[in-house]
Every structure is written in structure tokens, then in C-alpha cells.
Amino acid sequence: MQTSASKRQRVDPIAVAVPIRSDIWFADGNIVIQAQDTQFRVYKGPLCNASPVLKTAVEDLGDSKGVEGCPLLHLTDSSTDVACVLRTIFDRWSYPDDEPVPFEVITAFMRLGRKWRMKALYRSALARLCYAFPASREEYVCNRAETRILFRDHISKQREIVVDTIALARELDLPFLLPAAFWLAATRLDYLAKDHTNTISSADRGAILSAVNPLRIAYAKYLYGWLDGNSPDCTTGQECNAKKVKYALEVWKPPGIFLVFTWYSNATKGMCQSCAAAGRKHHSEGGERLWRELPSFFGLPSWDELLAAKNRDF
Fold it and tell me: Which domain of life is it from (predicted)?
């Protein structure tokens, strides 16, 4: 004989989570989008104009009635990503082109910009990433990621951005971002000391860690080899040599990111003109060589091969 409790257990309906209503909710909107457990009420027209993929999905719904008399479009994407893209569709001033934006907005624009075939959105986000992780030595020295990407917590957020960019580059096949991102990680190993590093593969972690010592050797040879001896035309002999020893002790810790490519005028202070000119030339040519060979330190293809993917149409 069944008890009343067991009867209630059998007939009680299965609890269904009530969707969360997003703050992107227009009272007179004519379509509701649901991503994960979040719903957004927006307008069909701007949605269809923004993306041919969404246009097809909306048309397929027809005049069905789902939520508050509106068709309901289910998406398999992250609700966070969807919210970022909907904000820029329905409020173009949410993320101005000339102002920093949070990194998660950039990743949303990359993922959904490609998936929904929103080329302008995708390209604008890619430009920001290329600014932070450039493919040229000159850009690497001059650019500062903070001017294009908002670091909410400058140090810890930057660590996450380096690792997350590596993961995003693998996810979306953007190999031209990897050398600069790998190098940042190799010169700041604390970037790999966070729990979130499980977002990148063990192969990528291994490539970064195995490049640390070869890179330090390259720094010494390519950029600072001129400190090992005097120019054949040196006019002061031992005095120049003493200055070089002093400078080597000051900079070799080993050098970090920007010190590698930045020439400091006081590097040759007190040296003869011949040694100063030779040092600057050696540093400049060594920097070019180091950048040219940078992908090889991580087992990546050449820059030419990596950059071929940059102009691919998604």
C-alpha cells in the first residue's frame, strides 16, 4: 500500500528553473532570445540586419508564440557572450571603438562575430588583440595593451589575459597571436602559476617552459653580445670595457620584455664613439633576428606561415 507521501512524490511535477530576465529587455520587443538560463527581449529588424546567421534563425521561427506573445529563439552560446553582442547591436555606444573594453567583451565579439558572420564586429575585436599581441617588433615595443583592453585589476587580470588569449587563439585558429603571447608568458612565469592556466593545453605550457632558457641565451648572444668585448676601433680600451661590465651587471637579471627591444641611451654612457655605435648596431640587428626567430623558440611555424591565417575570411 502506497503512502500519501509516496503518492505526492510520484505526481509532483519536475522542478524547472525559471529563466532569468536580462536587463536587455525592451517592453515592445518582438522576439525573445534565450541563451543558457537567460532571456533577452529585443527587435527582429536590427537583429536580422546585424547578422545573416541570426536572420535565417529568426525567419525559421515564423510567427510562433513563445514568451509574452513573442517567438522564442534558443541559442547554444554563453549568455555572457550573447549579452555583450546584443548590447553593441542595440546600443552602439556600449563599447566605443576608441575606448578600452573588458577582455570578456573582446572574446565575445571574436566568438560570436565569427559564428554569426558579423565581420565588422569580429575585425574590430581582432584588431584589439593584435594590438596587444602584435606580429611586428616595432608594434611590440610601442604598443601598450592597456590602451585598447581594459584590465580591471591590472596585474592579475593581465596574467589571465595572456593565458586566455592563448586559449582563444587555439579555439579560433589565430596562430599569429601565439608568439607574442607565448613570449609574455615565458618572460613572466608567474603568469602560468594561476589556477586558470588549465585553460591551455599541457603542450602549450610545455612549449612556453622549454623556451625560457633558450630565450635567455638568445638575449645574451643577440642583444648583449657587444658587451663581451671592445670594438676594433675602440679608443679608450680598459675604460670602455669597465663600462660594459658595469652595464651588464645592471641589466642582466636576465632582461625582461621591453628591456630586450628598447635601446637605452645611457647604455653606452662613458664609452667611446666606436663602441657606442657598435653596441647600438648589434642590439638593433639582434632584436630583428630575435623577433624573426621568435616563433621557432616555441616550436611554431615561421611568421610568414602564421600570418597567412590572419587574412583568411571566416
Answer: Eukaryota
